[in-house]
Amino acid sequence: MRKTFIILASVFTLLSVVFSVLPLGTIAVLPIAIALLLSFLALQKSDADSKKLPKILLLIAAICLVAVIGKQLLVKEEVAKDAQFEQTIEKSKEEDKKELEELENLEGDLE
Question: Which segments cross the bilayer (predicted)?
């Protein structure tokens, strides 16, 4: 049973690391919670001399949890308005209007 807990804890800890690095928000908490639970169960099932790996997995999952919570609290996601792009769009619209007016004048001259 201990080996099963360690294998599953390793898999979920790896998923926790990947999810905490990717910009997925708080969805990363789910594999982190599972990794913490499985690591804790593996730690409980281990003998006194074989608790090193479950402790490492528990520590990595806890660090991932702190990273995800810190990223949610400290990083503010906001969309900045790009004034230069807006000016380019307006300029492009004005040029398009002028071209359409020129085309209308050419059509009027041809008739």
Answer: 26-44, 56-74
**For 78, left (φ over 0), alpha (ψ -120 to 50), or beta?**
beta
Alpha helices, DSSP H only, in 1-111? Answer: 2-21, 29-45, 52-74, 83-110
pLDDT digits (tens, 9 = 90+) for 56-88: 999 999 999 999 999 888 888 777 788 888 889
pTM of the predicted model as reported, rounded to 2 decimal places: 0.66
Residue-wise DSSP of 77-109: P-PPP-HHHHHHHHHHHHHHHHHHHHHHHHHHH
Rg of the chain on CA atoms, in Å: 29
Rounded to whole angstroms, the Cα distance separating 52 from 62 reads 15
